[in-house]
């Protein structure tokens, strides 16, 4: 049976704790924390152990941060650019081993991002991922090699006060957070065949 | 600084614990554990909260399990089909909201898989993911809708004795487990620019 509340879902605490806030405090993230966060990405599994994930991080107040912020779409901008750290995630599109297209690059990047998300959470650092940015512009600005594709921007920081957000953003804090019941995405023995759980 | 050993890497215990074994014990996975494992996938984040992940699970001994096993490439077969549960992961390729192609489907499936991996680990259930299977064949056998693509097979079970594996598989237990140093995939302010960590 699927619970509608992750608190009562029976999953482990670090997974219950995860959500995507829009308000971050002013507190900076230390280099030591960032190092552990990226170390967590490092140990994710990947197809042929290719580790196709790459990350560029930016600290608020730097010129580079502002350049990335300019590539974020307006709807995301008001909340994302109050994060002390932004990270541009970049997937390597081909295998290093043979140059062929890696159909698992995005999949494996996603695993690495989820891994670093939990390490961050364990230190009370929350992430909000966004896909609403101009990937082509970031490729040009940051001179990313042709063989690599920017995938997401991670806004990262300690929790802030949602009341400090502009009014237009407050209701969205609770938007689109529902989940499908397990019966809609878990099947037994064949596609769309009911599970036994 | 990157450590070559995840034990001393400073990351949280559940991430340190994760690895991909090739030997599983005979112990079955209960329905209750499977329910929690898929519940963990359920709470992963996704682009537009589309939740593009889908899973078909198979218990060892069933006809369906044997059909999936037949689609696994020979190199993976000797170890994967001793797992008590196999899961075929399936990504929805287009957005439900507007029918457009979802470039984050594999990314978000990867996050959901990593989430369920950690829930499983918390109950001493280990996963080994494999991409070496005939996806087209599984689409046909299990009548998966056109708009969905099989992505990986997850072999899932409690740890077994590696000594019980055929000799040809034993050395592979330790193969390809090295990781790139953080300096190779984490940059500050621009592509390939050294990080400060």
Itemize the secondary structure elements and their pairings:
Two copies of one chain form a homodimer.
Chain A: H1 13-17, H2 31-42, E1 53-59, H3 63-71, H4 77-80, E2 85-92, H5 105-122, E3 125-130, H6 135-141, E4 148-158, E5 186-188
Antiparallel strand pairs in A: 1-2, 2-4, 3-4
How would you explain this protein's 3D organization?
Two copies of one chain form a homodimer. By secondary structure, chain A is of the alpha+beta class. Chain A is built from six helices and five strands. A four-stranded antiparallel beta sheet of chain A has the order 1-2-4-3, with helices on both faces. The longest helix of chain A is centred in the middle third of the chain and has 18 residues, at 105-122.
In brief:
The structure is a homodimer of 197-residue chains. Chain A is an alpha+beta fold and 197 residues long. Chain A has helices at 13-17, 31-42, 63-71, 77-80, 105-122, 135-141, and strands at residues 53-59, 85-92, 125-130, 148-158, 186-188.
């Amino acid at each position: 049976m699927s619970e509608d509340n992750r608190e009562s879902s029976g999953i482990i605490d670090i997974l219950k704790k995860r959500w995507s806030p829009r308000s971050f405090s002013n507190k900076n993230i230390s280099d030591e924390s960032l190092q552990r966060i990226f170390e967590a990405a490092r140990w994710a599994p990947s197809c042929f152990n290719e580790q196709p994930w790459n990350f560029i991080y930016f600290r608020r107040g730097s010129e580079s941060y502002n350049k990335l912020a300019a590539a974020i779409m307006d709807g995301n901008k008001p909340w994302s650019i109050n994060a002390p750290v932004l990270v541009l995630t970049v997937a390597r599109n081909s295998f290093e081993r043979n140059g062929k297209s890696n159909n698992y690059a995005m999949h494996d990047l996603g695993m690495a991002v989820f891994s670093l998300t939990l390490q961050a959470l364990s230190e009370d650092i929350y992430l909000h991922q966004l896909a609403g940015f101009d990937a082509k512009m970031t490729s040009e600005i940051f001179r990313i090699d042709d063989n690599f594709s920017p995938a997401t921007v991670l806004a990262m920081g300690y929790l802030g006060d949602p009341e400090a957000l502009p009014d237009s953003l407050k209701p969205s804090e609770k938007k689109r957070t529902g989940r499908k019941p397990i019966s809609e995405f878990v099947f037994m023995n064949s596609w769309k065949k009911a599970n036994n759980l």
